[in-house]
Write a structure and sequence with these properties.
Chain lengths: 313, 510
């Protein structure tokens, strides 16, 4: 691992008597996709919001590039840390382009530069700029909105981006494709990402390293493989186990790249979970799945190939 | 409907002027209320306890009856547009403040978190996100305020603030319901239009709305500044009480003053209000001249000494007494006109000629008692029917009637005698005769221009011009002129001009 960009030292956060985060010590490396995972009330969101000082710690210190956060100019700090919200919160009075241009504008970028950035960002999240630039947020689907939300956070290419359960309100299909998109963007832009989720599956899928939290206490920080192999506690292993069956909930569209094209009528929908077609597969039949991008036919062997691929991740 | 349309055609000039006045009054009040309530609503966001307090205060202010509020404001800021605008602003504060506060307060906290996380400054948050998001709610409040203001602004007429209320008041005073209806309809229509206009605001992009608002402010501000800065001749304000007679008189004053001094601009305020209101307006410099009656001065405005009161009761001319009382108040009364606008005993002209009757004392000649229809007050007054009985020794078979019915009753022959005022237009309309009060029972009410002594000293030319009316205009002249205005619907200014020209007081081609 390269150098640390973020370091928590004995960080404590108390809210009116209850302790949300207890003596947290944590380092996040440069360019890492770091996932904080835990149930609600685990302190993961509080930990995230202390990074851009939406919440101030009660005790301890957080260092960003070896400088204490409280010694940093608040505005500079926030302009250097992108933020993606669970509620998405695109400003409804602004177009898609105006939303993305928000921080570049505050930084007094030239109009030309802003326009280029907007188009570049939209393209990066698979939204056709010409078609989407001038739309209002209300005209977009949830998944499209969060793509724009990510564009807004990444527009100035900040060294770090915080994502607070960004996909928890989305449908499974959009969630999966957005997860892929985050992985792709991360690979391309090398931005440090701190990602909060309650979904162990999502954590395993995305994280370079995962921090499991419970009731304000850090349980384990490790790569997904290490967590799978050596859970630090019963809690972590249970939490991990709870995630495993969810592979059966994978929408069928995920199988497409392993399957054959088909012109037959669909017997199942692209959004249906994998478990729905287990019976016919078990009987050695293949199943045709109706899909917008073209129907496909999948058999048991191909499903096994998919599972092998998931296990490899 | 026909009558309304005719009144509209007849009054459209006045209507337009009053409409503009009304709009000006309402807009100024609305803008002031916006300038106060919106910043207050914004500021209250971070001061929750104060916000609660402010909501209470604005709520309480709103419960004060508008009429009472105007009355309370007069001693502080005087009369005219100032108290009207203040009262209107007070009423508009609550809806605008409340909606600004709630509109901003109810913005989804997620947006506020986003603003903060993106490092937006407070002004940026307000201008770029929060105000635009709260705009529909704020505009709702502005709309409520505007409708409230336009309706309440009709009350401005009561304190000389002008506007459509003037037309409504005049309709009430002239007992002309179509005129009242016209004023009320115009006010209602204005409110609807305004409300529509503001609802359009919320459909435009907010930058457009701000631009339109800015243009309005600049327009009115510029107009007001132009008016304040532009050189203009001295303006003399001449006001009159309610009704056609004072309106005719002040039009005469205007013609005479402008003939005497071309550099003077006369502003007329007809139907300005009741006696005591005009009197205090004159004393506080709000108006410069108004026609007043000698009888009114000694009976209700000022208190004569016992000796003076006795002289008046004996039938002496009250003019010198009124004049000396007024001088003590630093006021001067010009020369009185000829006519005496007092109680009168009225009979049919044809009947009077038949019986050779011209004076009240002639009634003693008749053998059978006459049927009389008197108004309740006249019937009971010492200087009314009681005085007729004692001073003239004449008795009638009396029916008491409401004052509005008496002329019709006389005209239809239901009664032979009635009471009235000596310059009533009905005397001319129904061919009646006001009998001469030969034993001087009725108090003398002669009209003369009243002004501040200092003003009279500063404007000797004008005083002289107004004194030309001294001894002019008989009761019959006044009856005729009132008839032309009230019944024939001529304009007071035309009637005034015709009289002055006919009597050589006004040179025709100026």
């Amino acid at each position: 691992m390269t150098k640390d960009v973020l370091r928590f030292e004995h960080v404590v956060k108390q809210f009116e008597g209850t302790t949300a985060v207890k003596d947290l010590n944590l380092t996040i490396g440069d360019g890492e996709l770091f996932v904080l995972v835990g149930a609600s009330g685990s302190g993961k969101t509080t930990t995230l919001k202390m990074i851009n000082r939406l919440i101030e710690p009660t005790d301890g210190n957080i260092y960003f590039n070896d400088k204490r956060l409280i010694d940093t100019n608040l505005r500079d700090l926030r302009w250097n840390i992108g933020y993606v919200l669970q509620q998405i919160a695109l400003f409804p009075n602004m177009t898609v382009a105006q939303n993305i241009a928000l921080i570049p504008q505050m930084k007094h970028w030239s109009k030309e530069q802003i326009r280029e950035t907007v188009d570049e960002m939209l393209t990066a999240v698979d939204l056709e700029p010409k078609q989407y630039r001038d739309r209002m947020p209300a005209e977009l689907s949830g998944g499209e909105q969060q793509r724009v939300g990510i564009c807004r956070a990444l527009a100035t290419k900040p060294p770090m981006v915080l994502m607070d359960e960004p996909f928890s309100a989305l449908d499974p299909i959009s969630r999966t494709s957005l997860q892929d998109m985050v992985l792709r963007l991360h690979k391309k832009m090398k931005t440090t990402i701190v990602f909060v989720t309650h979904d162990m599956n999502e954590a395993m899928r995305l994280g370079d390293r995962i921090a499991v939290m419970r009731e304000g206490v850090l349980q384990q920080v490790a790569t997904p493989e290490e967590i799978a192999a050596n859970p630090a506690s019963n809690f972590v292993s249970d939490f991990f186990a709870s995630a495993a069956p969810e592979v059966l909930d994978t929408p069928l569209i995920e199988l497409r790249r392993f399957a054959d094209r088909s012109t037959e009528a669909g017997e199942a929908q692209e959004g249906d979970p994998l478990r729905a077609i287990l019976t016919p597969l078990g009987e050695g039949k293949s199943v045709t799945v109706a899909c917008q991008q073209g129907n496909f036919k999948v058999n048991a062997t191909q499903v096994m190939a998919f599972l092998a691929d998931v296990a490899k991740d | 409907m026909q009558a309304l349309w005719e009144t509209f055609l007849d009054q459209r000039g006045t209507l337009l002027t009053k409409l503009v006045e009304h709009l000006q009054l309402s807009l100024i009040a609305l803008l002031l209320a916006l300038l106060i309530a919106i910043p207050l609503g914004i500021w209250a966001q971070n001061h929750d306890r104060f916000a609660g307090f402010l909501l209470q205060v604005t709520g309480i202010l709103q419960t004060i009856p508008s009429l009472a509020l105007l009355g309370l404001l007069i001693p502080i800021v005087g009369i005219g547009t100032a108290p009207s605008i203040i009262a209107l602003v007070v009423y508009a504060l609550l809806p605008i403040f409340q909606n600004t506060y709630t509109g901003l307060h109810e913005i989804d906290p997620a947006y506020k978190e986003a603003e903060e996380a993106f490092g937006m400054s407070k002004p940026q948050r307000l201008v770029k996100v929060e105000l635009p998001l709260a705009m529909p709610v704020i505009l709702g409040g502005v709309r409520t305020a505007a409708v409230l203001i336009i309706g309440t602004a009709t009350l401005a007429a009561l304190v000389g603030g002008g506007g459509l209320g003037d037309i409504i008041m005049r309709g009430i005073n002239l007992n002309d319901p179509t005129l009242t209806l016209l004023g009320a309809l115009a006010s209602a229509l204005l409110a609807i239009l305004f409300s529509w206009f503001i609802s359009m605001f919320s459909k435009w992009r907010w930058q457009v709305s701000v631009a339109v608002l800015g243009a309005l402010v600049l327009g009115f501000g510029g107009y007001a500044t132009y008016q304040a800065v532009a050189p203009k001749p001295e303006t003399i304000v001449v006001a009159g009480k309610l009704g056609s007679e004072p309106e005719i008189l002040i039009n005469m004053y205007k013609d005479l003053i402008e003939q005497a001094d071309a550099n003077v601009n006369v502003e007329l305020k007809p139907n300005f209000g009741q006696t005591s209101f005009l009197y205090s307006a004159l004393k506080s410099d709000k108006i410069d001249i108004y026609p007043e009656f000698t009888g009114t001065v000694v009976s209700s405005l000022l208190k004569p000494s016992k000796k003076q009161a006795a002289q008046i009761a004996e039938g002496q001319d009250p003019y010198p007494i009124a004049e000396s009382l007024l001088n003590k108040q630093d006021l001067s009364l010009g020369k009185p006109m000829a006519y005496n606008n007092t109680y009168a005993v009225v009979v049919k002209k044809a009947w009077a000629e038949q019986n050779g009757i011209t004076k009240i004392s002639d009634l003693t000649k008749l053998s059978t008692p006459l049927k009389a229809g008197f108004d309740v007050e006249f019937n009971a007054r010492e200087d009314g029917y009681k005085g007729i009985q004692s001073k003239y020794g004449v008795s009638f078979t009396v029916n008491t009637l409401d004052s509005s019915m008496r002329y019709q009753a006389l005209n239809r022959g239901q009664v032979q005698v009635t009471d009235g005022y000596s310059t009533d237009s009905q005397i001319r309309q129904y061919h009646l005769l006001a009998l001469e009060d030969d034993r001087k029972l009725f108090p003398v009410y002669q009209g003369a221009p009243l002004m501040r002594t200092q003003f009279a000293k500063d404007h000797p030319k004008l005083t002289a011009a107004l004194n030309q009316l001294g001894g002019k205009i008989s009761e019959a002249d006044m009856q005729e002129m009132n008839y032309e205005v009230n019944v024939q619907g001529k304009s007071a200014s035309a009637v005034a001009k015709t009289y002055l020209t006919k009597h050589g007081l006004l040179k025709e081609a100026r």
